[in-house]
Specification:
Elements (H helix, E strand, L loop, with lengths): L2 H4 L6 H16 L3 H23 L2 E10 L12 E12 L5 H9 L7 E7 L2 E10 L12 E9 L5 E9 L5 H14 L15
Antiparallel strand pairs: 1-2, 2-6, 3-4, 4-5, 5-6
Length: 199
């Protein structure tokens, strides 16, 4: 679903469409308290999506699946959560390989960085682990973020694919997922008969 569909301009046709789409959910609520709780949570979700859009995010997906890597492990079957985003960033005009290198140049010395030539062009992969500071109410769970920085052929912008998860023990699997996504990426528009470049 396009992010814009969840962030319509008040009073617009899109806002009416969203209201119509949500009506069955609100009508199914057991009572007014449940309805108000849903509305409040939906509004929080809209705030999060608004912040993502301001940062250039054009797509986000949430993954939740069972951990089935080690069939006999104690962790087998626990749910694994991941968050995938695609963002656009404006860049200074420069060769694509230079743009890819610049994208990861300011990262922490602990970051894992790799440069690869893929069918879509040069790509910089980065991997960082973040541990939240000691703040009341926030768990000290490490978060691993895998990023693929793909310079656009116009040399003016950069697509950033980010895959985040708290399943640090499954880094190898999540790293492989992001690499596969990046390997399949293309800046060609598959819907165009002439297969023109994405604007």
């Amino acid at each position: 679903m396009p992010l814009d569909a969840l962030l319509p301009v008040p009073g617009s046709r899109a806002a009416d469409d969203l209201r119509t789409a949500l009506a069955p959910i609100l009508d199914a609520a057991l009572d007014g308290v449940v309805r108000q709780r849903f509305i409040a949570q939906f509004a929080q979700g809209q705030q999060l999506l608004g912040a993502l859009t301001e940062a250039g995010t054009v797509h986000c997906s949430i993954g939740l699946h069972r951990d089935d890597v080690d069939a006999g492990a104690a962790s087998c079957g626990r749910p694994l959560l991941s968050f995938f985003t695609v963002s656009w960033r404006a860049t200074a005009v420069s060769p694509r390989a230079v743009t890819a290198a610049r994208a990861v140049s300011g990262l922490d010395a602990q970051a894992r960085i790799e440069f690869v030539e893929l069918p879509c062009g040069p790509v910089a992969f980065s991997e960082t682990v973040h541990i939240p500071g000691v703040v009341s109410g926030i768990p000290q769970t490490p978060l691993v973020q895998f990023r693929a920085h793909l310079p656009h052929p116009d040399c003016r912008r950069l697509a950033v694919f980010t895959l985040s998860t708290a399943a640090v023990g499954r880094s190898e699997q999540y790293r492989a997922i992001l690499r596969r996504i990046a390997a399949l990426a293309s800046f060609d528009n598959p819907l165009s008969p002439a297969c023109s470049r994405v604007p």
